[in-house]
TrEMBL record:
Keywords: Cytoplasm, Developmental protein, RNA-binding. The gene is DPPA5. Belongs to the KHDC1 family. It is found in: Cytoplasm. It holds the Pfam family MOEP19. It comes from the Eukaryota. GO terms for biological process: regulation of gene expression. This is Embryonal stem cell-specific gene 1 protein.
Amino acid sequence: MGTLSERRTIPPWVKVPEDLKDPEVFQVQTRLLEAMFGRDGCRIPYIEQVSKAMLELKALESPGFTEVVVYGSYIYKLRAKWMLQSMAEWHRQRQERGMLKLEEAMNALELSSWMK
Protein backbone atom coordinates (compact mmCIF):
# COMPACT_ATOMS: atom_id res chain seq x y z
CA MET A 1 0.00 0.00 0.00
CA GLY A 2 3.04 2.25 -0.08
CA THR A 3 4.06 4.52 2.76
CA LEU A 4 1.66 5.44 5.51
CA SER A 5 0.64 9.07 5.34
CA GLU A 6 0.29 11.32 8.36
CA ARG A 7 -3.28 12.32 9.30
CA ARG A 8 -3.93 16.04 8.91
CA THR A 9 -7.56 16.40 10.03
CA ILE A 10 -9.96 14.87 12.51
CA PRO A 11 -13.38 13.88 11.14
CA PRO A 12 -16.27 16.01 12.45
CA TRP A 13 -17.98 13.04 14.14
CA VAL A 14 -14.97 12.44 16.44
CA LYS A 15 -15.24 14.45 19.65
CA VAL A 16 -11.95 15.95 20.81
CA PRO A 17 -10.44 15.09 23.29
CA GLU A 18 -12.72 12.40 24.77
CA ASP A 19 -12.90 10.19 21.64
CA LEU A 20 -9.12 10.29 21.25
CA LYS A 21 -8.55 8.61 24.61
CA ASP A 22 -8.22 4.84 24.93
CA PRO A 23 -8.25 3.78 21.25
CA GLU A 24 -8.85 0.21 20.09
CA VAL A 25 -5.64 -1.22 18.65
CA PHE A 26 -5.04 -4.38 16.62
CA GLN A 27 -2.62 -5.67 14.00
CA VAL A 28 -3.29 -6.60 10.39
CA GLN A 29 -1.03 -8.44 7.99
CA THR A 30 0.56 -5.77 5.79
CA ARG A 31 -0.17 -7.77 2.63
CA LEU A 32 -3.93 -7.33 3.30
CA LEU A 33 -3.89 -3.52 3.59
CA GLU A 34 -4.41 -2.71 -0.07
CA ALA A 35 -7.27 -5.20 -0.37
CA MET A 36 -8.95 -3.72 2.70
CA PHE A 37 -8.26 0.00 2.31
CA GLY A 38 -7.59 0.42 -1.41
CA ARG A 39 -4.51 1.74 -3.13
CA ASP A 40 -2.85 4.37 -0.94
CA GLY A 41 -5.72 4.06 1.56
CA CYS A 42 -8.31 5.61 -0.76
CA ARG A 43 -11.17 3.76 1.02
CA ILE A 44 -10.23 4.93 4.52
CA PRO A 45 -12.37 8.11 4.43
CA TYR A 46 -15.42 6.07 3.37
CA ILE A 47 -14.82 3.44 6.07
CA GLU A 48 -14.42 6.21 8.65
CA GLN A 49 -17.63 7.90 7.56
CA VAL A 50 -19.66 4.69 7.63
CA SER A 51 -18.25 3.52 10.96
CA LYS A 52 -18.22 6.99 12.59
CA ALA A 53 -14.70 6.28 13.80
CA MET A 54 -11.24 7.60 12.92
CA LEU A 55 -8.55 5.20 11.70
CA GLU A 56 -4.81 5.51 11.88
CA LEU A 57 -2.34 3.03 10.40
CA LYS A 58 1.06 2.73 12.02
CA ALA A 59 4.02 0.85 10.60
CA LEU A 60 5.58 -1.62 13.02
CA GLU A 61 9.17 -2.78 13.23
CA SER A 62 8.01 -6.08 11.80
CA PRO A 63 7.29 -5.46 8.10
CA GLY A 64 4.72 -8.27 8.07
CA PHE A 65 2.21 -6.41 10.24
CA THR A 66 0.68 -2.94 10.49
CA GLU A 67 -1.01 -1.55 13.56
CA VAL A 68 -4.55 -0.23 13.11
CA VAL A 69 -5.66 2.32 15.71
CA VAL A 70 -9.38 3.09 15.95
CA TYR A 71 -10.60 6.26 17.68
CA GLY A 72 -14.16 7.26 18.46
CA SER A 73 -16.92 6.74 20.97
CA TYR A 74 -16.92 3.38 22.74
CA ILE A 75 -19.56 1.62 20.64
CA TYR A 76 -18.28 3.00 17.31
CA LYS A 77 -14.71 1.94 18.13
CA LEU A 78 -15.78 -1.61 18.91
CA ARG A 79 -18.00 -1.85 15.84
CA ALA A 80 -15.25 -0.50 13.55
CA LYS A 81 -12.67 -2.85 15.06
CA TRP A 82 -14.97 -5.85 14.58
CA MET A 83 -15.77 -4.81 11.01
CA LEU A 84 -12.09 -4.33 10.10
CA GLN A 85 -11.02 -7.60 11.71
CA SER A 86 -13.78 -9.39 9.79
CA MET A 87 -12.63 -7.75 6.54
CA ALA A 88 -9.02 -8.77 7.22
CA GLU A 89 -10.02 -12.37 7.88
CA TRP A 90 -12.18 -12.50 4.74
CA HIS A 91 -9.34 -11.14 2.57
CA ARG A 92 -6.84 -13.49 4.21
CA GLN A 93 -9.03 -16.52 3.48
CA ARG A 94 -9.67 -15.31 -0.07
CA GLN A 95 -5.95 -14.97 -0.74
CA GLU A 96 -5.32 -18.43 0.76
CA ARG A 97 -7.98 -19.98 -1.50
CA GLY A 98 -6.38 -18.26 -4.47
CA MET A 99 -2.98 -19.67 -3.55
CA LEU A 100 -4.46 -23.17 -3.16
CA LYS A 101 -6.10 -22.93 -6.59
CA LEU A 102 -2.81 -21.75 -8.07
CA GLU A 103 -0.98 -24.62 -6.42
CA GLU A 104 -3.55 -27.13 -7.73
CA ALA A 105 -3.25 -25.70 -11.25
CA MET A 106 0.55 -25.90 -11.10
CA ASN A 107 0.36 -29.48 -9.86
CA ALA A 108 -2.06 -30.36 -12.66
CA LEU A 109 0.33 -28.86 -15.22
CA GLU A 110 3.24 -30.85 -13.79
CA LEU A 111 1.21 -34.06 -13.90
CA SER A 112 0.00 -33.50 -17.44
CA SER A 113 3.53 -32.78 -18.72
CA TRP A 114 4.80 -35.89 -16.94
CA MET A 115 2.09 -38.08 -18.52
CA LYS A 116 3.08 -37.08 -22.10
